[in-house]
Specification:
It is a single chain. The chain has helices at 5-9, 12-15, 26-31, 103-112, 138-152, 167-178, 198-201, 222-231, 248-267; strands at residues 52-59, 64-71, 83-88, 119-123, 156-165, 186-189, 211-216, 238-242. It is α/β, with parallel strands linked by helices. It has a single domain (44-267), classed as Rossmann fold (3-Layer(aba) Sandwich). The longest helix is centred in the C-terminal third of the chain and has 20 residues, at 248-267. The protein is globular, with a radius of gyration of 17 Å. The model is unreliable at 1-35 (pLDDT under 50).
Length: 272
């Protein structure tokens, strides 16, 4: 039986009750929905990562230990005083994957290209679509615990943005809607949204939050992402639609633009 990626992500509502995304693991995940017009893959830049760590923290919100990832651009020491961009992973990843995805290298490259420096921080949310699943609440972990863990590192938690891809793009938008005005910006790659779901229905709550929205034209979620764009209270502040599918190669290609957007918003005056 062939299972589409949309069918897999359609279980997001059920995930709030703790269901597992059947068939969403490993290489098969990336094969879903592939089409001819994928476009060129982006590459991880050669820039060295700065202070990049994966630690284990106890999350009371999730009731378990989680992997906690942080990255500081090369040349920024331990990152003390830097604003923070929260990273929300997709369904086939965890925070342990972030170093091999090259996130620290992309961050160093963005700063080397002139972007104001910022730190990345993320934690494992499993496959709950960044929503509560019984007593397991990864969204509360993002809102309450990650800022505290970041403050312990000396990061500036008064300036926070969020970025995610696929399920994490959905989660980043949902987080911005749940706490209007908290995030300086939200960037979403190929968010796993469906027309009429909670993110699209709650899009009006994004008023005042700069949104970056990217999706490949060959992505199964393309039509639903366009529907989300139409529901936004203002046009996206960054992003666009280009050749590409629901792949790491496409996300690598657009990461530099997203990091430039996030960096500018985190560095901007609060009233600008």
């Amino acid at each position: 039986m062939t299972v589409s990626r949309r069918a897999v992500l359609a279980g997001a509502g059920a995930l709030a009750g703790g269901a597992v995304l059947a068939g969403a693991g490993g290489a098969a995940w990336w094969a879903f929905g592939d089409r001819a017009d994928r476009g060129p893959d982006g590459v991880i830049p050669p820039d060295p990562p700065g202070d990049e760590r994966v630690e284990t923290r106890r999350s009371a919100a999730r009731g378990r230990d989680v992997s906690f990832y942080t990255a500081v651009p090369a040349g920024s020491g331990d990152g003390r005083g830097l604003p923070v961009c929260l990273v929300l992973h997709g369904a086939s990843a965890t925070a342990d994957d972030f170093p091999r995805f090259g996130l620290g290298r992309f961050l160093s490259a963005a700063v080397a290209a002139g972007a104001p420096p910022f730190a990345l921080a993320g934690a494992t949310g499993d496959r709950l679509a960044w929503r509560p699943g019984g007593a397991d609440d990864p969204q509360r972990m993002l809102r309450e615990e990650l800022p505290r863990w970041c403050a312990e590192r000396g990061f500036d938690t008064g300036r926070v943005a969020a970025w995610g891809w696929s399920m994490g793009g959905y989660g980043a938008l949902l987080l911005a809607e749940a706490y209007p005005g908290w995030l300086r910006a939200v960037a979403a790659f190929s968010p796993a949204v469906r027309d009429g779901d909670d993110v699209t229905a709650g899009a009006a709550r994004l008023r005042g939050t700069p949104v970056g929205l990217w999706c490949g034209r060959s992505d199964d979620f393309y039509d639903d992402v366009r529907a989300l764009e139409r529901a936004l209270p203002a046009a996206p502040a960054a992003g666009g639609y280009d050749r590409g599918g629901h792949t790491r190669g496409y996300w690598n290609r657009i990461t530099p633009a997203a990091f430039a957007f996030v960096a500018a918003r985190l560095a901007a005056r609060q009233d600008s």
